[in-house]
Amino acid sequence: MAQATDFNIANASFPSVRSDINTVLSAINTMNSGTSRPSSAVAGTMWLDTTSASSPTIKFFDGTDDISFATIDYSANTVNFLDSTVVADIVGDTSPQLGGDLDTNSFNIKIDDAHFIADENGNEQIIFQTTSSAVNQFDVTNAATGNNPSISATGGDTNIGINLVPKGTGVLQANGNAVKVAGKQTMWVPASAMYGATTNPADAQQVETQATRPDMKVLDFDAGTDEFAQFSVAFPKSWNEGTVTYQVYWTPASTNTGDCIFGLQGVSCGDNDTIDVAYGTAINVTDAGIGTVEDQQVTAESSAVTIAGSPAVDQLTYFQLFRDANAGGDTFSADARVLGVKIFFTTDAANDA
User: Fold this and answer.
1) CATH number of this structure's domain 185-346, picked from the four choices 3.90.700.10, 3.40.980.10, 2.60.120.10, 2.60.120.260
2) Cβ-proximal residues to 181 (8 Å cutoff; 6+ apart), any chain
3) Is the CB of residue 196 less than 8 Å from the CB of residue 204?
4) For residue range 323-344, what is the model confidence (pLDDT) as tens digits?
5) Cα(333)–Cα(223) distance, rounded to whole angstroms?
């Protein structure tokens, strides 16, 4: 390390000139290294302040003052710029760190498709997925005291929903509790809410198991004759007016293990429609007798039942349940005592507003 008293090579004998040149070249070669500004400094001189032997400072002399430009960390082999306005290329830095808050200065942060923000352990915390030509997005807004922060759907479209999609069999939860969402729903219709059809009615009964134990409110469907029971449902507005499925809850009146065939059909009627209409196509479901009187039986879920009458909002849907006793496949030899029917339907709205 060296500093020159000046950078002027004066006329002199060769040994003196050579010595003068070597001093200047040594000063240049060591960037005017020293613990103080070189006496030869003029405005524009850069020099290396070696006051700290392990982390010297590059300084610029403006003719009056020294301006610190950067420190050199000999241990880490890094340059640490001292002026916050310095623009540096961090592509080559594989583990850059902030020394303070990151201010985007009214610009945006861009994240490549399928890349993420990680936690302090390097694990994915938020992964961003890209949609080409996207126009809708989230706004996350904080709130003052007494108000709730919000996550809002915003963007170019007039009406924008929010999709929260669990993985696999996971469910949407709020505060640890599952949130009910639009989709498949169930409705229980007990036998006590049904009535025998005027023609070939099923027989309403109250059957005692034993005293002070559950009595069964049932509709008895004969083994030798097709019998019918009816009920009606005003579906919620959130129903998608599509097909439904059903299960029959019943109990056998004998120990026979033959197959019992049930059928269900429906029709919807709106304001000012006639109720004198035919039911839609019946869909059957078969269940074998369990072999024990008064045991609970539940059929499999049926295939889709299409409701006749073009279902719509604010309509009443009439259903007819029957036992297809005359079918060759119905081999259960006693009354089938129906306890009720579970109706499965699908909603496509969050509520009935």
Assistant:
1) 2.60.120.260
2) 172, 350
3) yes
4) 999 999 999 999 999 999 999 9
5) 6
